[in-house]
Amino acid sequence: MSVTAERLFEPVESLEGIKVIDVDTHLTEPADLWSSRAPEKYASRVPRVVMPGEMSEAVRQQTAALSGGHSWGGPQKRPVWVVDEDTLLGPAGAGSVVNKDNEKVKGAVFLEWPLSESSPAGSYIVPRLAMMDELGIWAQIMFPNVVGFGGQEIIKVKDPVLRDLCSTIWNDAMAEMQQESGGRICGQALLPWWDVKASVREIERIHALGLKGVITNADPQNQGFPDLAQPHWNPVWEALEGLGLPLNFHIGASATQRSYFGPTPWPSLDNNVKLAIGSSVLQLGNARVVANMIFSGICERFPNLKIVSVESGIGWIPFMLQAMDYQAAENGVELPMKPSEYFHRQIYACFWFESGTDLIQDIERIGIDNCLFETDFPHPTCLFPEPLRYVASALEEADDGFRRKVLSTNAAKVYNFDVPE
What we know:
By secondary structure, the chain is α/β, with parallel strands linked by helices. Helices cover 36% and strands 12% of the residues. The chain has 13 helices and 14 strands. Strands 9-10-11-12-13-14 form a 6-stranded parallel sheet. A 3-stranded parallel sheet has the order 2-7-8. Helix 5 links the parallel strand 10 and strand 11. Helix 4 runs parallel beside helix 5. The N terminus is likely disordered.
């Protein structure tokens, strides 16, 4: 089943004049993203695509283990992303449900696609800008696929110099793409989270490059590092706060979270059902991240730190705020403010497929200033092919000021966009 973008697209009257900022899209990384930018001696060691017949035995074994229980094939069937000769990052698939003909295909079949099957707009700036113009979207925030939504996969790289290079090349590539797009496509920077001092230096460097925000591992404790509540990370929060850069927690941003399927669905279910269940539950995973950031005291100690819960929806948030306030009081949590007050002060969340009167009410209950719009292009839950028509219908009963805030000016404030008139 496919949905085509052939009729790209008549303007949505109720949104005319709004510079829509889409705060969650993804890059289907071109095969040469790292190798084309690496110093010559590292070009054959940075992340690159390896065909089945070219895999080392170590990668072949890792691929066989990874493919167990998944639909993306075995070591003889699919190309993979590899670092050095022996470190598997993951399958080198399209990572997109929008194919090369700009048709959206539903279900888990996209997991079998090679990179060449993906929409060029998933990977390259010129076709991405053309699609944005056709869809009526002024700017996009962009996240990675290959290295994990929190950069958690890079820790697999054993050589510390090569590991740092993997993140800095991504950040350099995002700066290039942002410049090429005229500031309309803004990839989020990877932090070298395995090294706090290096992270602070990289925050300063990417700010100088003009990048708009960062991503990091939501659960470093599961890969041998202190959890985010510990003072170990304070220099990172201080650097971000001082420079006004938002800290993004995309769903699946840790080694124990990232999976379309994971352990959530019952094993006897088919892949389409597993994808539906896994995606639904994965989106709720950020409730624990938000709760930990507040209850740990990070928001109290760093009151100007901007935190964004990405691709997690908003419908659960009113309940979660009530639950946190109640549990804080019941369990003697000593914070100067209610958990909900910290959320309203400095945490933001994104909606996309939620719709109807409930969406408007949820935004009002959460706080209109705390809600941002996303499309998740080109991932399985994306609003393609008519995201603005969808959201215009969802916000039909809202006034122009309401729509302008949640579709544009809130995001401009969080990500430091200079929005043209």
